[in-house]
Amino acid sequence: MATGRYAQGRLFLRRQDGKRKEPSIMKVQIPDQLKADMPPTQWGKMLAATPVVMAVIATLLAGLASSEMTRAQYDRALAAQQQSKAGDQWSFFQAKRLRGALQRNSLDLLQSTVELHPLTAAALKAAAEQLPAPPNQPEAAKVRTEILAALDSTAGRRAVSCLERGEVPQVGAGPLPSPAIQAALDAVENLKPEPEIKPLLAQVSDKALDEALRAARDHAQAFDTATKPVNTAIDQLETRVARQAAARQAIASTATPAASLTRDFTAARLRYAALRYEIEARVNQAIANLYELQVRKSNISAERHHKRSQRFFYGMLAAQLGVIISTFAIAARQRSFLWSLAAAAGLLAIAFAVYVYLFV
Length: 360
Hints:
Blueprint: E1 3-7, E2 10-14, H1 32-37, H2 42-48, H3 50-113, H4 121-129, H5 138-152, H6 154-165, H7 179-189, H8 194-202, H9 206-252, H10 257-332, H11 335-359
Antiparallel strand pairs: 1-2
């Protein structure tokens, strides 16, 4: 009986006389059904991987849709914060306009009831020097000394100069926005429809808008810094002039020219305050308008990301449809048509997602 052994993948048989027969090679035949299930061609391998590829694409599109929705929510929240800041500036604007109107109304009432004269530094100094200072009235001497010292100080001279001219300290003209920002501001101010405002805002970059807003805030801070010493000096002078009138009244016990000087000082202060509040209100209005542009840009960006999220979601559904079709194709073993349809759906989903990402 012949015996055999394997050597280097070949089968050797020995006869009973000990001689070795010629080796025979065993060939493996792949069943036709297995070949049909595992297409050997490159196209067949690509079709076999279609469900996996579609699942990956669907997951990717789902992530993009979620990301776009998150960015839309962030832009909405940012727009709400910017709207709050704009509301603060509008509140300042309204309050200062109201204060300015009150100052002008008080000035008009004062001018219509009493006779007023232009306020001058010489009149203030002369009234202080002519104030009697009897030994039994130490307050009068103290007031006279304080007024003369205030008038000789730098802040006092500057304050009286502003009252005489009816002007506020100059800090230069406000910052001029770029032409693109100015065009958007004009469109909003003129109540243009939203479709006309969007193209104008598209030409305004976030960086340019931030720089314009920073410049407007710096201008407001510079104005506050320039007027603060003058405002403080005017308040102190008003208090001392009132004390001077009270001291002169206590000494003379009758009406004196000091009362007229007090009215003149009050009228000059009201005129100065009305102008200051008007300028501050306009500064706050400029800042509020820039914030309003930021709010609109954030809302437009939120709408864009929300729309992109919807389109990515539709692309994800198409990719999932490809997975379902390819799965049914495997179950039905009709890959020639259904798998091609699944692959086409996946390609359309990819092309649609690229279109949304680039152009929407």
